[in-house]
Amino acid sequence: MKKLLLTLTSVLLCAELFAQTGTIGTRSENKDSDRLLTMEEAVLGIGIRPENRSYSWRPGTSTYTTVQDNALVGIDAATGEQSVITDTGTLNAAAGTDMDSFPYYIWKSGNEILFAYNGYMISVNVEDNILTGKFTPPSGAMNITPNGRGYYAFTIDNNLYLCDSNGNVCPVTDDEDPDIVNGQFVSRNEFGITNGIFWSESGRKLAFYRKDQSLVTSFPLLDINTRTGSLFEVKYPMAGMASENVQVGIYDPAANSTVFVKADDFGYDQYLTNITWSPDDKHLFIQVLDRAQKNMKLNMYDATTGDFVKTILEEHNDRFVEPLNPLYFIKGSNDRFIYATDNRDGYKNLYLCDTDGNIERLTETDADVAYIGQDGKNVFYTSAEVSPIENHLFSINLKNGKTTRLTREEGWHNISLSPDGKYFIDKYSSLDTPMVITLNSSDGKKSETLLAAEDPVKDFAYGEIELGTVKSADGAYDNYYRLIKPKDFDPSKKYPVIVYVYGGPHSQMVRNTWLGELRTWEMYMAQRGYVVYIQDNRGTSNRGAEFEKAIYGQCGQAEMADQMKGIEMLLSLPYVDKDRIGVHGWSYGGFMTISLITNYPEIFKVAVAGGPVIDWKWYEVMYGERYMGNPVTNPEGYAKTSLINKAKDLKGKLLICQGAIDYTVLWEHSLSFIRECIKNNVQVDYFPYPCAEHNVMGRDRIHLMDKVTMYFEDYL
């Protein structure tokens, strides 16, 4: 009777579990081939990526351009008529160069193109094939940024320079203090910051970042390439410690003068983010964020004097506010703009605002959206409202609010909108569909296929790929997963499992793209007899503010709870060997990997962690304090999530790989964990990559993935 009751209970539990899961789609195994991936193919992707093509829109037109046979060809989107705009022979004659293939190019205006070739930049008017500028960057020049009118801003070391259309170079800044940095990104690339130079729309004024990092502590890294080895230091503001002081300068080339924006809302270590020029060059808009990242002010400044004009709107959140997007001004307007935030209605939506502070919700959807463009009458955006693992294009009419869905095919759509908004080029794929590129009219009357790529892995022995969902630990969400079954899968056999995990903010590992966003190494392992499992959890992106902010103050806790729901599902599968489960991840995924094997030693037998965060107090201020708060105000959270305290609980086999010159997750993290293992007489394996930064790249990565693979082969 006891046995019968246990069996019945087990059946009921399995039924309940499967009620909490669902299959979205399946790509079948290719049983017609025995061809296995090599590690080089798995890492470098050579020969196994779908065919792709590059297109650009000619400014001010409905003509898109592409390179064919060393010529730049323009295609009229309305008629399909093709014409050669220029070719390498014509460019060589105009510019005095010897190009043997068509170079990388960027449209500067409807007739002018900027080319990068052989270490210098050339601008050519392709209407008359006349050289309009040639810029040879000085030695050491970095961050080269053209204004589209013959001027180039660039940095050398920590100062900012300008080269005019006649080739004259003048300094914009002349700071001698090495702790003062001009014209480069600030805040360690957080808040959507990718550069430090911002030309106005006309190209007549230049805004730039200036950061003072004199109070920021330094961390030494070892360069083994010198005869006796040498140390070099990187400035690294750790959570709870002194941070940068950031300013924004505005340079007027005509007057050769600079003013600094008077932004002092939140003190020394506030963040100045998402710099936006007004279309008339008169004002600069900055989203000013306090250090705690709970309060943000969208401020307007006079671009001539740097004076504060007004605060247009404010945001507050008890967990965090994270501004990531600049303002998008409505065509023809200097005072109406689109603003994106997830802080007002629970999802990242678009809002129509003006400089008087009026704000109106534009996209009324309970899903995250992303701005694509606008034509003054309609705003185009992509949205997760069809499915969190799909990306579709919509438009909304600014006058009547009518919303139109513009993409219908299943999958993830990447959009390039024509300058006039009448056409768009759509690159999309889905689980079974490699790259498809189409040209479409925004009114829905025209759709033309430009490319339907063949399956480049049709001759490989790829195992079955399943996309599905499993409930989050709190029962509120469907978390999406990708499961790859072994080659020649036999449901009567037992297979080892490798869980690949990242799990951190701004990530989405599972999408309805070709092969389900597969990392090719996953299939490499499936071909060698492993079940491979990848799942997104609370804290990752594209699911709304509550889903993302669930991790606040205790990074790793909600994520682990969700990952373990996936493990429960795996353990219910008859072909999973519950005694052979491994886990692998890098960076935040390295943190998750060690968290899982130390918190659940009865489940995970083998783990490989790369560049892992070990204790958030050693991570950078901008990211660490956003998700964990300050160590002074959240000591319990920092103690609970620290893996130093978990070293003694390690039971299985753990390999840690670390780039020795990693300035994202400092060596201090993994070495401190190793030291704690030694103190507790816990065995652990360690492999440094002496010349690698945070990620091991290039052909060195083949060695890394061989190392990871062999570790699972040896111990799992």
What proportion of the residues form beta strands (DSSP E)? 35-45%
Gyration radius over CA? 27 Å
Shape: globular
Main beta-sheet annotation: 9 strands, mixed
Distance between the termini: 37 Å
Q: What is the share of helical residues?
A: 10-25%
* Integer average pLDDT: 95
Poorly predicted parts: 1-15
What count of helical segments does DSSP give? 11
Number of strands: 44
**Helix-strand makeup class:** alpha+beta
Multimerization status: single chain
Q: Which sequence of strands runs across the widest sheet?
A: 1-37-38-40-39-41-42-43-44
Put the structure in a nutshell.
With 716 residues, this protein is an alpha+beta fold.
Account of the protein in words:
This is DPP IV N-terminal domain-containing protein. Keywords: Signal. Residues 142-435 form the Dipeptidylpeptidase IV N-terminal domain. The chain is an alpha+beta fold. Helices cover 16% and strands 36% of the residues. Helix 7 links the parallel strand 41 (576-586) and strand 42 (606-610). The longest helix has 18 residues, at 2-19. The protein is globular, with a radius of gyration of 27 Å. Mean pLDDT is 95; it is low at 1-15.
Which helices and strands, and how do they pair?
Elements: H1 2-19, E1 21-27, H2 39-44, E2 56-57, E3 63-68, E4 71-76, E5 82-87, H3 88-95, E6 104-107, E7 112-117, E8 120-125, E9 130-135, E10 141-146, E11 152-156, E12 159-163, E13 169-171, E14 180-182, E15 197-199, E16 206-212, E17 218-223, E18 230-235, E19 245-252, E20 257-260, E21 271-277, E22 283-289, E23 295-302, E24 308-316, E25 328-329, E26 336-341, E27 349-354, E28 359-361, E29 369-374, E30 378-383, E31 392-397, E32 403-405, E33 412-417, E34 423-430, E35 433-441, E36 447-452, E37 465-471, E38 478-484, E39 495-500, H4 520-526, E40 531-535, H5 545-549, H6 557-571, E41 576-586, H7 588-599, E42 606-610, H8 621-628, H9 635-641, E43 653-659, H10 667-679, E44 685-689, H11 700-715
Parallel strand pairs: 39-40, 39-41, 41-42, 42-43, 43-44
Antiparallel strand pairs: 1-37, 2-3, 3-4, 4-5, 6-7, 7-8, 8-9, 10-11, 11-12, 12-13, 14-16, 15-16, 16-19, 17-18, 19-20, 21-22, 22-23, 23-24, 25-26, 26-27, 27-28, 29-30, 30-31, 31-32, 33-34, 34-35, 35-36, 37-38, 38-40
